[in-house]
Amino acid sequence: MASPTAAASGSSSSREGTAKAMVFDQISQTIQSTSNLLHLMQQSSPSQVQLTKLPKNLLAKTTMIKNTGQVLEQMPQVISSLDAHMENGLQSVPHLRTVSQLLANMESCQLSSLSQAHLPEKEPEMGKQPPAKH
């Protein structure tokens, strides 16, 4: 026997599929109506030159609409995947800061040892001699 949540999930999926089919049918009907209207306008309008610049066959756009629908269906999975990658990246930030700090420290130590190797030997400082009596 199916659990109540599985039944609810199935009916939700069914409703979603029905809603998508209804939207697609409405879009297709709109394209067909617009195409018919365009043909009527081209036949009866004095400004046919401007009308010929409009899409000649709106029905050809149906495939693009189907493809757009498929892309939109995949968007939740894409967003979820990107969200997981972002979360993973954010968890790595403290480690990256540590590595960056270690690299900066190594660079500083190397520069310090290089600068000490190239400095001439220092002369004894004047401040270390006993003060002269006047």
Shape: elongated
Percent of sequence in beta strands: under 5%
Number of strands: 0
Using only C-alpha atoms, the radius of gyration works out to 37 Å
Count of separate DSSP helical elements: 3
Helix content: over 70%
Taking the sheet with the most strands, its summary is: none
Mean pLDDT reading: 75
Low-confidence stretches: none
> N- to C-terminal separation?
110 Å
Strand-and-helix sequence, N→C? HHH
Q: Indicate the structural class.
A: mainly alpha
Main location: membrane
Keywords: Lysosome, Membrane
Organism: Citrus x changshan-huyou
Subcellular location: Lysosome membrane
Strand-helix topology:
Layout: H1 4-44, H2 48-52, H3 61-118
Helix pairs in contact: 1-3
Short structural summary:
The chain is mainly α. It is built from 3 helices and no strands. Helices cover 78% and strands 0% of the residues.
Task: Please name the defining characteristics of this protein.
134 residues, mainly alpha, 78% helix, 0% strand, elongated
Structural features, described:
Helices cover 78% and strands 0% of the residues. The model has no long low-confidence stretch (mean pLDDT 75). It is elongated, with a radius of gyration of 37 Å. The protein has three helices and no strands. It has 134 residues and is mostly helical. It comes from Citrus x changshan-huyou. Residues 114-134 are annotated as: Disordered. InterPro entries: BORCS7 (IPR032143). Its main location: membrane. This is BLOC-1-related complex subunit 7.
